[in-house]
Automatic annotation (TrEMBL):
Annotated Solute-binding protein family 3/N-terminal domain residues: 43-259
The entry's keywords: Signal
A Pfam family: SBP_bac_3
Major subcellular site: other
Signal peptide region: 1-25
Subcellular location, record wording: Cell envelope
Keyword Signal belongs to the record: yes
PROSITE patterns in the record: PROKAR_LIPOPROTEIN, SBP_BACTERIAL_3
PANTHER family in the cross-refs: ARGININE-BINDING EXTRACELLULAR PROTEIN ARTP, MEMBRANE-BOUND LYTIC MUREIN TRANSGLYCOSYLASE F
Protein name: ABC transporter substrate-binding protein
Similarity field: Belongs to the bacterial solute-binding protein 3 family.
Gene3D superfamilies, sorted: Periplasmic binding protein-like II (3.40.190.10)
Biological classification of the source: Bacteria, Bacillati, Actinomycetota, Actinomycetes, Micrococcales
């Protein structure tokens, strides 16, 4: 029994040595890619929660597109892998659950960087500045914190908008996504919608108005599982590259409709 065990141990050592050997080879790029673990090898799988135009929304072909998807596709391209989009409830994404259950490799969902979330998964460098906004029926007279008192305010579950409403001592009514929030406002179930200002624009054509911006100074980041350092580094490297080579500006201009203002 002993010799067998020893043989097994030796074989294991040999294997380790082999692995060590191959990872100290010359091809640094291949090594970096080799360290990267993806839930579905050959594919970067991204979790996102549409509708959240212009960051993630369904186009006329039923495909999920938007600024978050464009940026994540740049990461996939740099890694030389495909991109697959997985639609996920925002709360499971925000809690880090979709990363720990290996539903995806990366979160790209207009996700604000917060200390609480950063305990559960790692954030990339920030890629977009955000504030909260208020959407109401045109002429409602609701346009600040004071006039929101006692009103029913639709929030998206587990978002920073929900936290903002609670912190102001106001009354949030929870909805699973932005689409359901907007429907509640259209049908008069609520008096107002609070969510990120950048996603409220598409609705002002239908008798609704953006009545206020609440400056919260948020920043969006992409999320990866804690410990997946190789992926996090790759994501940040892509963000640096697209900032430098003009790709980020092009994506921003296409999706947001204006050129980004200088930092
Ligand atoms: N920025 C806000 C947050 O992180 C809202 C994000 C909602 N994103 C989405 N795709 N529905 O809480």
């Amino acid at each position: 029994m002993r010799p067998t065990l020893r043989a097994a141990a030796l074989a294991a050592t040999a294997l380790l040595a082999l692995t060590a050997c191959s990872s100290s080879g010359d091809d640094a790029a291949a090594d970096a890619a080799g360290e990267l673990t993806l839930v579905n090898p050959g594919t970067l799988t991204v979790c996102t929660n549409p509708p959240f135009e212009p960051f993630e929304f369904e186009d006329e072909n039923g495909e999920i597109v938007g600024l978050d998807i464009d940026i994540t596709r740049e990461v996939a391209d740099d890694l030389g892998v495909d991109l697959e989009v997985v639609v996920t409830p925002f709360d499971t994404l925000e809690s880090g659950a979709s990363l720990t259950t290996d539903a995806c490799d990366i979160l790209a969902s207009g996700l604000t960087i917060t200390d609480e979330r950063a305990e559960k998964f790692d954030f990339s460098e920030p890629y977009f500045d955000a504030d909260q906004g208020l959407l109401v029926a045109e002429g409602s007279g609701i346009d600040d914190v004071e006039s929101l008192a006692g009103k029913k305010i639709a929030v998206q579950m587990a978002t920073t908008g929900e936290t903002w409403v609670e912190d102001e001592g106001l009354t949030p009514v929870q909805y699973e996504d932005l689409g359901l929030q907007i429907n509640a406002l259209r049908t008069g179930q609520v008096d107002a919608v609070v969510n990120d200002i950048a996603v409220l624009g598409p609705f002002i054509t239908e008798g609704l108005e953006v009545a206020a911006t609440f400056p919260t100074g948020e920043q969006y980041g992409l999320g990866v599982k804690k410990g997946n350092t190789a992926l996090l580094e790759a994501v940040d490297a892509t963000l640096d590259r697209i900032r430098e080579d003009g790709t980020y500006d092009a994506i921003y201009t296409e999706r947001i409709g204006t050129a980004p203002t200088a930092d």
